[in-house]
Amino acid sequence: MESSTIIAPSKEINAFDFHLMHKVPEQFMWSSKALEKGSSEKLNTPLIDLKAIKGDEVAMANAAKLVREACMKHGFFEVTNHGVDYDFIISTYRQCDSIFKLPLSKKLSAMKDKWGYSVAHAEKFSTNLPWKEMFTYRYNYIPASESHVVDYFKSMLGEEFERVGLANQKYCEAMKEVSVSILELLSISLGVDPLYLQKYFEDCEAIMRCNRYPRCENPSITLGVGPHCDPTSLTILHQDQVSGLEVYVDDKWLPVPPRPETPDALIINIGDTLMAMTNGVYKSCVHRVLVNNRVDRKSLVFFLNPKGDKTLTPPKELLENGEQRNYPDFTWAQFYEFTQEHHRTDADTLPMFVSWLQNQKALPSNSKPLWK
After folding, report:
1. Which helix (H) or strand (E) holds 298?
2. Can 288 be counted among the known catalytic residues?
3. For the chain, which end, N or C, has fewer CB atoms within 10 Å of the first or last residue's CB respectively?
4. Which residues lie across from 271 on neighbouring strands?
5. pLDDT of 41
6. How confident is the model at residue 121, as a pLDDT?
């Protein structure tokens, strides 16, 4: 896959208003390689019924086998009957919509560093911009305050957004509960203690993002998100009933369409840090998002990350037969800084990070770090 390795930050934030754009600006145009036409074949993702496997060892073992096969192949599977009411999910979308419907000037005022509102990541990049807007914030499993999400929304958008903040906080709390079940399932699928990943992520530093991909007059020359692997550990995604997500497997782009029969289904995918934790046994696969010329597409994305100072290293069970280490030990804080300061997230983020990390360790103590 094509790699984009150099960050090109804009000198000033481009105030793109999708409602006013009747043609695709040059900054949003992607290469023919990134825009390669997708297949009509769908990605084979197992759908796991979390309620059915709870307390049933045979059902859990069968589900773990399906998850293991999927994660070794492409890192994607789906779950349903996870305990999060579908009406609540739809309500969360509506609350997030209230942000995207604000005047652009108000939305841009809710932008601080890499958090809050962002339009096409234009505050960081100047080319290959994604055709989307988003609102991003942190959610800690062990919060300093029980109302930290609500407080954040009020501080960024005003007191009138308390209700929006409350809906988002409840959604994050629900995703936290879902993650517990998923981490247990993944641990069993790896053949380690069922509580191994739960314990590792018990003080998780999650990132939550509400995405809107506006309809586009010429969707064939742009992307909602370009080809990339998630640098985070685990992604829990809900997509609305509009198609767009595609995964690169066996040298072709395979769609992961919505499931009308199970609209509450959550898509789970392995990120780079969890791939490193499994010594490469589980795959962090390249994926992208298409846009269309008919309707907006929306998604809610919950990214799990370990506490910043925790060392990412494989469990001993994955190395007991003398397997060679594929990745050095590192912390999430180191990897996250790399994605923010040195390398735009793409298909090669993890191998580029490993190379960068090795260069850093080889530098004399009085040398300036590379990539600065």
Report:
1. strand 297-304
2. no
3. C
4. none
5. 96
6. 82
Query: How many C-beta atoms lie closer than 10 Å to residue 99's C-beta?
Result: 23
**202 in Cβ contact with 273 (< 8 Å):** no
CA atoms within 13 A on the CB side of 127: 7
Q: Which amino acid is at 49?
A: D
Of residues 79, 13, 83, the one with CA closest to residue 47:
79
- Which residues touch 309 (CB under 8 Å, ≥6 apart)? 331, 333
Which pLDDT does position 122 carry in this prediction? 75
10 Å Cβ neighbour count for 138?
Answer: 15
Q: Which residues of the chain have pLDDT under 70?
A: 1-15, 362-372
| Beta-bridge mates of residue 206 | 139
Nearest CA-CA partner of 297 in 38, 100, 117 = 100
How is 246-312 classified by DSSP, letter by letter? EEEETTEEEE----TTSTT-EEEEE-HHHHHHTTTSS----EEE---SSS-EEEEEEEE---TT-EE
Specify which residues 65 forms β-bridges with: none
Q: What tokens appear for 77 in the block? A: 């599977």
Q: What is the pLDDT of residue 145?
A: 87
Spatial separation of the C-alpha atoms in residues 332 and 274, rounded to whole Å:
10
Strand partners, 22: none
Specify the pTM: 0.93
Type of residue at 132: K
- The answer to whether the CB of 118 falls within 8 A of the CB of 133 is yes
Taking only the tens place, the pLDDT of each residue in 210-242 is 999 999 999 999 999 999 999 999 999 999 999
How many angstroms separate the CA atoms of 223 and 244, rounded? Answer: 10
Residues with Cβ within 8 Å of residue 372, at least 6 apart in sequence: none
Where helices occur in 74-201 by DSSP H, the ranges are 86-100, 104-109, 148-157, 162-190, 196-200
What's the pLDDT score for residue 363?
Answer: 43
Return the pLDDT at 50: 97
Distance between CA atoms of residues 131 and 153, nearest Å = 24
What is the arrangement of strands in the sheet containing 234-239, beginning at the earlier edge strand? Answer: 47-49, 76-80, 266-270, 234-239, 297-304, 205-213, 133-140, 115-119, 111-112
Q: Of 68, 288, 297, 344, which one is the catalytic site residue?
A: 297
Residue 324 CA, distance from chain mean position: 28
